[in-house]
Amino acid sequence: MARLTLWSIRCSFARVSFVAGALLVAASSATAQGGAIVSGLVTDTAGVPVLSAMVSVAGTDLVTATDYRGAFQLRGLAPGSYEVRARRLGFTPSARTVQITAGQSQDRVNFALSAIPTTVKAVIVEASQVEYSGRLAGYYERLHRRSGGQFISREEIGRQESRSLSQLLSRFPGLNSVSFRTGESAVRMRGMSCRPLVWLDGVAMPAAEVDLNSFPLSTLHGIELYLGSTTAPFDYTMSQNRSECGTILLWSRGRDTEAPPPVTASLLNLEDMAGSRSVFTADKVDIQAELLSPKPLQVAYPASLFASGFAGIAVAEFVVGENGSIEPGTFSIVSTSHPLFAQAVSRALHGATYSPARIKGAAVRQVVQQRFEFSPSGRAAKVSALSGR
Prior knowledge:
disordered C terminus; five-stranded mixed beta sheet
């Protein structure tokens, strides 16, 4: 069976980069006609970003593709009224009208595309337990239990839209922000005038006052807050004998917390293939391609998202060949709630096998969009949207 190798994914990404570059050049060539910018987001009706959607301006050569956040930007619009269009295979096209006035530098328009119904069954990824490992294992386990302290996950850090760590922490019950003449900022636990213990990745910070704002929020993966010595994890209470003033555990981002941007593909290539009848869409075949034995698929629930209780989706797109295998270089992500969901899906589909699509009994190549739904079973799930990070 053909496999989705790193080489084939890189080739697909390189092809997309070339096409995206060509589109940007086309957009730049129109800048002389006017300087206004139209930007926005393309999502599905649930607010999940749609990747590689083509956004164009009717009557012009301006066209671009959305990135992994569903964002787009069109440059070079002179004053006037324009129809902005968004389309993506698997979704109903949409159009919006924008009015650019003289002296206006930018405008914003968002699209919520409706998915076209499909009979391909979604793969449900449920997890009641995840095995945590690595440097963040303890943090994830405590975040999962949420007992004894307050927890601020990476997604929550992004949603708070705070300018600094001290401002973020002061928004949580039991903490107050304090400022010094030096311009440094710190926090104090409720009813306390002494400094709390501050730990970074399991290492205690110096006994002197720690300037919390020296830790940019963009570098933090998670935060734990403990108001007293009786609630903090035992390993973080003994140092310097000052845990009675409270404990703050900071966990930084690193290679073990990051997922690469989801692989995207060129909608133009897929439309050309479908138009030439070398590849068929689901509505053009008698029998659609169907995943065989979905249970053997090893879809790992991302540890950080399970610990946070986040549910979400990832929709993969690829061509299933006449032999039922996923053709190398055709794999991409259509939409996803989080890059970690996309990463889990791309890994799982390496070993996937499909029954091929058929027309009049003959096996044919088909563009397939396979949906994966992630849910931490037995827990109150919160839906994480990439656009809100």
